[in-house]
Structure formats: C-alpha cells, structure tokens
Amino acid sequence: MEVYMIRHTSVDVPKGTCYGWTDVPVAATFEQEAAVTKKNLEEMLEGKTLDKVFSSTLSRASKLAAYCGYQHPKLDSRLKEMYMGDWEMQNFDDIAKTDPHIIEWYKDFMHLQTTNGESFTQLYERVAGFLDELKKQPYERVALFAHGGVLLCGGIYAGLFTTDDVFSHQVEYGGIQMITL
C-alpha cells in the first residue's frame, strides 16, 4: 500500500512557540503553500486515485486536505502532533526559565515525556497503532494529512530511517513523504 503522508502548511504562531495539540491557525501564506502541496501530490499520484483520505483532527491538517480536494477526510486523533502538555503555546526559551525538566527532555526527548505531555516514543506508539490497522485494509493508495512528528514516525515505521537519524529527515511545511506498507 502506498501511503502519502502530507504535512500541514506553515502556522501563524511566533517563532519558537511550542505547539502540539493546540489548534493553531495557518499562516497568511496558506493559499500559496497549499497550492504547491496540491500540485506536488497530484504529480506524485500520476493520475491515480486515492482509496481513502485521513486527517488529524486539528484544523491545520484538515484545512489542507480540503484545499487539496478532500473535503471530508476521515478524522483520526492518532494523527495529531505530539502532545506538549504544560509547554503548549509557550516559547521554548521561556519554558526553560520555569520548568527545568525541559533540559533533561532535550537530552532524551525520545523517551522522556514533556511535563504532563507525551514522549516521542508515545507518539510513535500512537502512530504505529494507526498504521498497523491501516495495513489490514484493502487499500492501494491512501493519504494522511498530519504533522511533522507524525511523518517522522511514519518514516521510522516504514524503515526509511532510524531514531538515530530522525531529524535529518524532517519534511518541510506542506511537504509530502511517501511510505509503503
């Protein structure tokens, strides 16, 4: 099964802001970025149709799905970004002033949870559970409109890279990563 994993476009939050499950607005550049994403997806599909389209429940992902022609994707909360807990909507530099746990988290973000949030491992388990279920379906091609962390998990799941080199494989805003299940 071909799985086209599409990252949402840029968001309208100050640089350095920690956001995960917060439903932040898209940036003013949405139309331009979405048009490029739609064109790139159409080129990747080479005229083939998608059997199913899924989206995170957060509007920055579902809005891009709608722009790309998929008005009613199946929403699934397992496709949400990593939950940043108490750090949501705070500036990363400011978090360090009030929560010393962030220093330890920086050293082992793969295993340590954010304060009252998730770890990357928990995010991976959530996304892997979704992909395990998806593999059992009779689809040939599906699209997932989601977030950077979800795309990283998908790449690890598909064996494109490992946790050791995960951040050298980040997909830009509006970017697409194709994996095979």
Write a short abstract of this structure.
With 181 residues, the protein is α/β, with parallel strands linked by helices. The chain is 36% helix and 15% strand. β3 (52-55), α2 and β4 form a beta-alpha-beta unit.
Topology overview:
Blueprint lengths: L1 E6 L9 E2 L11 H16 L6 E4 L3 H9 L6 E2 L14 E2 H7 L2 H7 L12 H16 L5 E6 L1 H10 L18 E5 L1
Parallel strand pairs: 1-6, 3-4, 3-6
Antiparallel strand pairs: 1-7, 2-5
Helix pairs in contact: 5-6
Description:
Helix content is 36%, strand content 15%. The chain has 181 residues and is an alpha/beta fold. Helix 5 crosses helix 6 (148-157). It has a five-stranded mixed β-sheet with strand order 4-3-6-1-7, with helices on both faces. Strands 2-5 form a two-stranded antiparallel sheet. Strand 3 (52-55), helix 2 (59-67) and strand 4 form a beta-alpha-beta unit.
Task: Name the descriptors.
alpha/beta, 6 helices, 7 strands, globular
Q: Give the mean pLDDT.
A: 96
Low-confidence stretches: none
Order of helices and strands: EEHEHEEHHHEHE
Distance between the termini: 5 Å
Q: Biggest sheet: strands, sense, closure?
A: 5 strands, mixed
Helicity, as a percent range = 25-40%
Largest beta sheet: strand ordering: 4-3-6-1-7
Shape summary: globular
